[in-house]
């Protein structure tokens, strides 16, 4: 796993050997605003699926350390009680500045866990709020977690999270205004249509710290997976996931070739010096670089 994240020599070749054995695991994403209780809810989902005899892999996306660039391992600390369970594997990944709520190597790690035979692969996003929509192109089932007291119904619409949710979870539902948040989300879903491939998006309530409502959430996730597998939606989502993987690889390769081309002409400062001397314009200089690729 570390080799994939660090792009160590041989990692790509190993992944290529594993790739034909992927596509079997149910991939579940947990996203939402900071402070919504995503990590606690993820921990409870692990517990519930293990009680049902399923093997669970977890990819926890953490903010990058400003000093080392590595992951701040808050999620693995919170899920420490599962560390001795051979049916659970937890890996934290740093965002390394990548937007979208995921890490660059998230999909690769998901594929490895899939090939290893894990029944459920859980992805917990970093919790940055409005940029966490990449999960929709990575998971089969996207759970959006909100909490009362933060205007989350409106926030979900602003962030685009309304459009990616297969299930909404109002966590910390023991708070007094939880029922109001549920009504707001249900109204927003009604206005938006509220269905994904014929699936009616539910709004569930949990109190993750007390393990309340988690079994109902697990049942809803399983029902969603069954719904996808029963029709063409499963293949469509797998195709979207593969498309995202391919797109990531193509644009990463192009970006690196562009960076190498810039370095080959003295770096960005050298190009800027040319521009400041009046030796060309931004579009023309950019085209010169493209011609080198």
Radius of gyration: 21 Å
Point out poorly predicted stretches.
64-76, 96-102
Helix percentage range: 40-55%
In N-to-C order, the SSE pattern is: HHEHEHEHEEHHEHEEEHHHH
Q: Largest sheet, described in full? A: 7 strands, parallel
Number of strands: 9
Q: What proportion strand?
A: 5-15%
**Number of H- or I-type helical stretches:** 12
CATH architectural group of the largest domain: 3-Layer(aba) Sandwich
Mean pLDDT: 83
What is the assigned CATH homologous superfamily of the largest domain? P-loop containing nucleotide triphosphate hydrolases
What's the shape? globular
Report the top-level CATH class of the largest domain. Alpha Beta
The assigned structural class equals: alpha/beta
How far is the first residue's CA from the last residue's CA? Answer: 31 Å
- Main-sheet strand order equals 3-2-4-1-5-6-9
Stated plainly, the CATH topology of the largest domain is called: Rossmann fold
Estimate nothing, just give the exact number of structural domains: 2
Features:
single chain; alpha/beta; 2 domains; globular; Rossmann fold; 7-stranded parallel sheet; 293 residues; 15% strand; 9 strands; two-stranded antiparallel sheet
Please give a structural write-up.
It contains 12 helices and 9 strands. By secondary structure, the chain is α/β, with parallel strands linked by helices. It folds into 2 domains: 230 residues, Rossmann fold, CATH 3.40.50.300; 49 residues, no CATH class. The strands form 2 sheets. Strands 3-2-4-1-5-6-9 form a 7-stranded parallel beta sheet, with helices on both faces. β7 and β8 form a beta hairpin. It is globular and about 65 Å long. The relative contact order is 0.13. About 7% of the residues have low confidence.
